[in-house]
Amino acid sequence: xPTFLEPFYPAFAGILIGVATMGAKKVFEKINARKxxxxxGKVYDVVDPLLDQYYTGWSGSTIxxxxxxxxxxxxxxxxxxxxxxxxxxxxxxxxLPDVAKSKRLDPNTPEGRKSLEIAxxxxxxxDGVDRNKLIDxxxxxxxxxxxxxxxxLS
Length: 154
Known about the structure:
Elements: H1 9-54, H2 60-74, H3 81-94, H4 97-102, H5 110-126, H6 131-140, H7 147-151
Helix pairs in contact: 1-2, 1-3, 1-5, 2-3, 2-5, 2-6
């Protein structure tokens, strides 16, 4: 025997699917945030002094490249292209210009030397060096810490 709620079943199903989809997206965002958060701190230590000095003069794609080079060079070259792109997106969303202004480039620290390496790579890119060659250089550079230690893998 039909109830007065039967006409609303399709709408309820649509709402449940929508809520489930949004919930799944939030879960995946949290997983990515936990996965890249430890590395993100080191990346910010490297790029914040650069972004503070050059942010207004760089295009969005240059900033993306700077962040991508930083993720590759901070880690140990085990990030896939997709992982690096997700990490870059997360870094851009969480970037705080006021915090970047408080950081100064210290060439005597490992982070400062990485900053200078990346600044050199950006200059090479502006001089016409292929972006993929720079990514290969970043992947081959000496890491600040292995990605596996950031990601909690053995």
